[in-house]
Amino acid sequence: MSNVVLILGAGCSAGSVGLPVDKDFLRRTANSKKYFLQKALNKLYQPDGVSDYHWSSYRLEIAWSEIYANQKTPKIILKPEEIEEIYQQLRQYADDERNEKRKKKYYSFFQYDDEQSRSPYEYLFKFAEWELRTTVFEECNKKLPDDKKHLYEKLLEYCKALGDKLEIVSFNYDTLIEEALQNCYYLGLEDKSEGLGIVKPHGSVNWMRMGPRMDWNSSYSLVDFGYENNILCEPLLLGLIDKKQDALKDFENFPFSEILKCMHQSLWEAHVVVIIGYSFPTGDRHVRNILKKVKSNRKNRDLPLEKIIMVSHSQDSEVNNIKADLRELFYINDDNIEVRTERWEEWILSVLKTESSRKAIGGV
Questions:
Q1: What is the CATH number of the domain that holds 173?
Q2: Which residue in 325, 283, 293, 281 sits closest to 11, CA to CA?
Q3: Does residue 73 register a pLDDT over 70?
Q4: Which domain holds residue 254?
Q5: Which of 308, 347, 344 minimizes the C-alpha distance to 328?
Q6: How far apart are CA 76 and CA 31, in angstroms?
């Protein structure tokens, strides 16, 4: 049996509903009114704030790592008046009954914490963490437009025609691919035998923790997050964790290790891999490590992949570098790597115009 794995990254969603790729999140945040996030990020390296270059080039996971690191071990000593300003702002958000429900609940965990257990500095980065996560949630909690659905359907048809079994590894928080599927389930979370399996190592906007209870396959909004009746409700955006194995500790009872095992298994059993809009960034160390383990096992057994199709909207001059990175991560002959540099929507439409593709999917 021939297995196909479809890997999806932010570049797949960017064109569909205008979601930003990682480095664009900070650019958007710089123009927003996210008080604590801007305050925290502007204190990372330079006393005068983060330069325009850093705002435009930082990847999302780098911003998260810096917030996480500063929260745990402060690097910058703020001026006393700045600390007092932050503290008073926290109290205002937590105590002001006139704030709308979302903001009241959003900052409500301040009231449930011992005021002596954290310094105002630590609170700055704790709130910055929440603002970054809710910014990501707001951006990614989008629906698949009707005029884009057929593109996802055609992509799935094309991938299914490449083999006997298809599984999806999605690093996106959004649920666009789930909306395009009529029947799917989450590998590592749900024990099902029917439908198409999806692995989401970074979490999803429709996953939520409510105290010790986990829930997925539901719709949430920002008003659902925060403390209510002494229970913390928060989105399970696992990609926003500095060290991915911290999920085993920070998200108690969540089967993060099972998700990674399912990703490993899918890639180990794959014969063909189709990659849309994902560049295997060095920040995703856990992903690259899993791929290298799979590559080592394949090499020891001399089981190269039959085909890799990489669709990445980039310059033609970057093709050799893309191929070199794929050879580093996958066991495959260079002749069996196909790199396409157009937008994936243009690519799938052009592919489906060929006679071979029409025959493969039954003349559609």
A1: 3.40.50.1220
A2: 281
A3: no
A4: 3-18+145-203+238-360
A5: 308
A6: 24
**How is residue 267 written in tokens?**
């890639």
Residue-wise pLDDT tens digits, 282-292: 878 888 999 99
Residues in contact with 351: Cβ distance below 8 Å, sequence separation at least 6, in sequence order:
158, 357
**If you average pLDDT over residues 83-102, what whole number do you get?**
62
Helix extents (H) in the chain: 10-17, 22-30, 35-41, 52-57, 60-72, 80-95, 101-106, 120-140, 146-160, 176-180, 247-250, 256-269, 285-300, 319-329, 344-351, 355-360
pLDDT in tens, 143-190: 898 889 999 999 999 999 999 999 999 999 999 999 998 789 999 988
CB 315 within 8 A of CB 341: yes
- Reported pTM: 0.83
Examine the pLDDT at 252 and tell me if it is beyond 70: no
Q: Are residues 64 and 31 in the same domain?
A: yes
Is the same domain home to 156 and 180? yes
